[in-house]
Write a structure and sequence with these properties.
2 copies of one chain form a homodimer.
Chain A: E1 13-23, E2 28-34, E3 44-45, E4 47-50, H1 57-69, E5 75-82, E6 93-101, H2 109-115, E7 117-121, H3 132-147, E8 161-162, H4 163-174, H5 180-189, E9 193-200, E10 208-213, H6 215-220
Parallel strand pairs in A: 1-6
Antiparallel strand pairs in A: 1-2, 1-4, 2-3, 2-7, 5-6, 8-10, 9-10
Chain B binds a DNA duplex through helix 5.
Domain Nudix hydrolase (chains A, B): 11-144
Protein name (chains A, B): DNA mismatch repair protein MutT
Amino acid sequence: MAADSYHQTSKIQIAVDCIIFGFDGAALKVLLIKRGFEPEFGKWSLMGGFLMKNETAEDAANRVLHFLTGLKDVYMEQLHTFSALNRDCAARVISIAYFALIDINEYSEQMQRDHEAKWFPIDDVPGLIFDHNLMIAKARDLLRMKVASHPLGFELLPEKFTIPQLRILYESIYATTLDKRNFQKKILSLGILHRLDEKEKESSKKGAFLYVFDHVKYNRLQSGELKFI
Amino acid sequence: MAADSYHQTSKIQIAVDCIIFGFDGAALKVLLIKRGFEPEFGKWSLMGGFLMKNETAEDAANRVLHFLTGLKDVYMEQLHTFSALNRDCAARVISIAYFALIDINEYSEQMQRDHEAKWFPIDDVPGLIFDHNLMIAKARDLLRMKVASHPLGFELLPEKFTIPQLRILYESIYATTLDKRNFQKKILSLGILHRLDEKEKESSKKGAFLYVFDHVKYNRLQSGELKFI
DNA sequence: ACAAAAGTGTTTGGGATACACCCATGG
DNA sequence: CCATGGGTGTATCCCAAACACTTTTGT
C-alpha cells in the first residue's frame, strides 16, 4: 500500500451477482433472468446489481436477491470476486459473487413472470453473459464441497421433508446415486433430524415420514463439521 | 442490475491485502509490516495495495507480494472480499484478500529490514489495523481446510524436505500431534513423494532422507482430492 | 391383486488408530 | 558408549460399502 495511493482507484465499478440455487424434487436448478438492458439485452444472465456507497457487499447481494425473489433471511455465502479486465464489455466492473440457497416453493410464478426469470437445471444452463457461466461452475463446486460437511442441504428443501427427498437432493448435487439404506443410516446417525408424526403421501402410496432439521441438536455438536456424504 | 446503474459506484476504492504464510521448521508464521504512512502509521499490518485500473485483483496481489518479498510464481489464492462500511477509517475501501504460501528461506533478512517486515507466529499475532486480524483468522481456516486435501504444504517447505519436517508442518497448522509412523505410512502411500539419495543431517545424527514432491505423479491422479490428514 | 415407493439389518473389507523397538551417528 | 532423532510393522477397531426382502396402501 503505497503512501500516496488513497486516490488511485478510479472508474472501477463494483457489482454483486447472485447464483441462486433451488431444488424441485428431481434436479438442482439455478435461477436466471433475461437481461432487460444493454449491453447484452435479452440474454440470460445471473441477477446482479451495483454496490451502493452505503452498503456492504452482503447488503447488496441481499438487496438484489430480495428484489428478485421477495425473500429475506436466505442462506447466502460469498463465493469469489471476479476482476478480469474485460469481463464486462461495457465498463471496468469487478463483481463479488454470492451463492444463495432457497426453497424453490417459496419463489412464486408471479415473481418469475415479473422478472422474466426462469429456473434452469444445473446441467443445462444456456450461454450467459460475461463470465456468469464460470461463476455458476464455481458455485456448484463450492456447493458440493460445503454440503458434504455442513447442513446446507436443508436450505433447499421445505421445512418438513422426507429422507428420500434429501437423498435425491444429494444425488442431484453430486450427480451420483446413493444406497438408500446406507444414506438413511448415516443421516439419522448424525442425530440432527427430528421425525414428525406426519407422512408425506404425494410420491408414494405408503407415504414417507416427514422430518425437520433440529438446529438445537446441531449446535450442540461443537465440532462444526459433520460428514453428510 | 438496474438499467440505469452503470455510473452508480463512486468513491469506493478497491484494495488487495496479502496474508503471507511461512514455516520456520517449528511454527507457522505470517509476515507483517510496520505501516509507513497514515492512517495508522507505525502499526502492524498486512501488506496491501490499491487495485490499479489495468490490472486484475490477482495481478495486484502478485505485484504487492513481489514488491514485499521479491518473489514471483508464488502459490496464491483468493480468500475473501471484505466490504464492511468502516473497515478502513480513512475512506470507503473494500479489500480483496489473498493468502500466499512461501518458503520462508527465500525471504531474505535484507528484505525484512527494507520493509520493516517481521514474521509472527500465527498464535501470537499482535493487534493489527482495520480488519486484518479477521483476515488472518479466515486465512488460517482456509489453509487448514485446503491443506487436508490438496498438496499445498510443500509450498511452505524447501524443494527438498524430510518427512519429519512435513509432519511438524502439519502439526503446526492443526495445532495437534501426529503419530510419526502413521503419518509416514499415509503420506508415502499417496505415491506423490520421491525419495532422494540424500539425507538432511542438521537435526539429527542419523540424518533423515530428503524427498521431493512429484508433480507428475500427482497430476496423474485425476481425482484432484487426496486425504493428507 | 398388483404396482410403487418406503423402510429396515447384516456381512465384509479397508483405512485409521494405537502402540514399541531397533538403527545410525556425532559427540 | 550414550543421547538423539529416524525409521519401521502389527493388531485392532470402526466406518463405509454392498446387498434383498417386507411393508403399506392407492388403484
